[in-house]
């Protein structure tokens, strides 16, 4: 478990999930970043994460404290403040981006031209956006890189339904007409998102904090331990078998984004689930995990 250092449940829960992310843990346990980085003894965010993950598997103590990461919290997110409750998903995004930037700096220093860092290899994917002009049938297509999916859950009962809604075709009309390059005019069009390249680790955030007053959507959204995305893949995608297994979730208990408590469930390599609630860690069943009102889900590819 991780000691709470003062409203750090959001940090502890995210660190537990990253620690049990298989490809990231394997990479960190081999020390592949710190071997090349001169920031091992300074404030390199990836070195700190690598050290934290390695320490979690190396030391024989029931409770530890992520003190170094907490000390350098603003290295990951400049506006985060010690002692203040922050958003777990926001921390996760900042942590991945900070580690990605650290990898990119290392590659640039080594004169590697590729922008495909280890963080992009683990968490990165591509969505394809296609727009059909309904006047001339011209098709515009582009790829956008993503590190996670954020899904609306208003009036949504299942994760599958939320994913289907995300990829539902959208008609661009009225004030939202499409400026067609071929027609040279504003036209009615249809927009369709699909997955061109699915990530090795798929992170899904359920948008529970949608009220500008700080309210929360606290409804249970049904999800499963197995997830298949074949029906949402682009027709021209080289990625044909994006099948996933759940290995971690973050839960927020409470009624507002400005308060409450975060805790996590993680699955160990043997398939046993554990509830990680700050310094308290206990075995949990699959049924218990699936009954939770989850906020963030972590899936890893089966192949």
Tell me, what's the shape? globular
- Which fold name is given in CATH as the topology? Cathepsin B, Chain A
Order of helices and strands: HHHHHHHEEEHEEEEEEEEEEHE
Strand content: 25-35%
Strand runs, count: 14
Average of pLDDT: 91
Biggest sheet descriptor: 8 strands, mixed
CATH homologous superfamily classification: Cysteine proteinases
Low-pLDDT stretches: none
Number of domains: 1
Number of helices: 9
Assign the structural class, choosing from mainly alpha, mainly beta, alpha/beta, alpha+beta, or little secondary structure. Answer: alpha+beta
CATH class: Alpha Beta
Q: Which CATH-level-2 architecture?
A: Alpha-Beta Complex
* Rg calculated over all Cα atoms: 21 Å
Portion of residues within helices: 25-40%
Distance between the termini: 30 Å
EC number: 3.4.19.12
Organism: Selaginella moellendorffii (Spikemoss)
Catalytic activity: Thiol-dependent hydrolysis of ester, thioester, amide, peptide and isopeptide bonds formed by the C-terminal Gly of ubiquitin (a 76-residue protein attached to proteins as an intracellular targeting signal)
GO molecular function: cysteine-type deubiquitinase activity
């Amino acid at each position: 478990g991780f000691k709470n250092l003062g409203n750090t449940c959001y940090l502890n829960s995210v660190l537990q999930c990253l620690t049990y992310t298989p490809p990231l843990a394997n990479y960190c346990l081999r020390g592949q970043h710190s071997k090349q980085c001169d920031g091992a003894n300074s404030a390199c965010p990836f070195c700190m994460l690598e050290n934290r993950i390695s320490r979690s598997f190396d030391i024989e103590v029931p409770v530890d404290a992520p003190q170094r990461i907490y000390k350098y919290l603003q290295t990951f997110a400049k506006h985060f403040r010690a002692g203040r409750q922050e958003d777990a998903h926001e921390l996760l995004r900042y942590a991945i981006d900070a580690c990605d930037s650290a990898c990119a700096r290392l590659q640039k220093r080594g004169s590697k031209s590729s922008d495909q860092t280890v963080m992009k290899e683990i968490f990165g994917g591509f969505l394809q956006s296609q727009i059909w002009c309904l006047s001339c049938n011209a098709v515009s297509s582009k790829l956008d890189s993503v590190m996670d999916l954020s899904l609306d859950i208003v009036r949504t009962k299942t994760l599958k339904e939320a994913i289907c809604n995300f990829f539902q075709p959208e008609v661009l009309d009225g004030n939202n007409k499409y400026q067609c390059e071929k027609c040279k005019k504003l036209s009615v069009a249809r927009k369709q998102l699909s997955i061109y390249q699915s990530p090795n680790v798929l992170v899904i955030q359920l948008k529970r904090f949608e009220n500008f007053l700080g309210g929360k959507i606290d409804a249970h959204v049904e999800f499963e331990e197995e997830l298949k995305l074949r029906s949402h893949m682009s027709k021209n995608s080289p990625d044909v078998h994006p099948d996933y297994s759940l290995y971690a979730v973050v839960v927020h208990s409470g009624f507002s984004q400005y308060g409450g408590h975060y805790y996590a469930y993680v699955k160990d390599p043997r398939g046993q689930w554990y509830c990680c609630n700050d310094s308290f860690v206990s075995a949990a069943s699959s049924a218990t995990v699936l009954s939770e009102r989850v906020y963030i889900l972590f899936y890893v590819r089966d192949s």
